[in-house]
Design goal:
Three copies of one chain form a homotrimer. Chain A has 139 residues and is an alpha+beta fold. Helices cover 25% and strands 36% of the residues of chain A. The first copy, chain A, is elongated and about 50 Å long.
Chain lengths: 139, 139, 139
């Protein structure tokens, strides 16, 4: 059994940002030399997400607008969590909708993806250092 | 270590449809002869889901109504993604709530399920060819 | 390859409850003697969740209020599922937002977590016996 573990670093320029990390995960997979297995990619922080969807700029705007509607940032005082001095309660909620992690099949040394699947890091409380874990297990 | 990979094909008759795929996954598990391990089942398209919930027709109606409330299909023009000529932006959002994938424990050659757990393919933009991946890893 | 399977039992005192189960999962990991691998933790019932977020009491209140807004318990008659005699349709919906399972990387014999990641059992239809499965696979 082979195992490969890597950590990706992010520090976004805005509070909300979606970043396509597929090439970064593909690079780690190549280095791992794993041909068949499972690949876990997860946010290591609880106000961000890793998810798989479409790399289309219009859709990303839709995600932003939609998440803001379902879990609005303002008014900050609507959330008990923000009584601690934080302003990011909404980011903790948004992350539950978008998810913490994805598990991806590795087949013939490749991410076994449908035609439009791309991996995204979803930042909902940015402008600070965050990490994403990539763990591949197989043979 | 044993690995088994299969692809399921769907082409639903309506835009929204929930299909119980548990028997299909159980068949693949049996063929794999894997006794202990993990089974990944994921949608390979980004406007559909794989999830685990109850096989109860009333609940499926509730899911349909609820998802339509949280991410309505109409009016199509409310979504930037649909400016590309698509009409399925809502399906990309619905899929985030319902999830892309499930990971299931394999114990004693069986899906290690609670009493009501059933695996569903959730189609939110149907009437076209879609695939689901099943990957089992273990021994 | 090593595999460890355990079941956790819950019977909460209230309908909605969030329980930090990180120490229970860490104990199972220690017993498994697995150094590198993947750990699956999932609800075995379809009206509850396992998720990773912050162990902060204000945030837990926010989750409760927010889930009640997105998928209200009352009026019970708004859900077709409740025509079966159940009163828990909302719990089936809430569970989709919060998720069924988490997959956690095991690195150097530890849950490979960011600084604030904690595992929670989320009960949305409590006061009855429920189970959570923990399966660790690695070496």
């Amino acid at each position: 059994m082979k195992v490969k573990t890597e950590y990706l670093l992010f520090n976004t320029s805005s509070r909300f940002q979606l970043i396509n990390i597929t090439p970064l995960v593909e690079k780690i997979l190549k280095e791992s030399e794993i041909k068949e297995g499972l690949c876990l990619v997860n946010a290591m922080h609880i106000s961000s997400s890793v998810f798989i969807n479409d790399d289309e700029i219009g859709l990303h705007k839709d995600f932003h607008k939609w998440l803001e509607k379902l879990a609005p940032h303002e008014p900050i005082t609507q959330y008990s969590h923000n009584d601690t001095g934080e302003e990011n309660a909404d980011a903790h909620l948004k992350r539950q909708i978008m998810g913490r992690e994805v598990v991806i099949a590795i087949t013939n040394s490749k991410l076994d993806f449908g035609p439009w699947e791309q991996i995204f890091y979803g930042e909902f409380d940015g402008m600070r250092k965050k990490r994403v874990l990539v763990k591949i297990m197989g043979e």
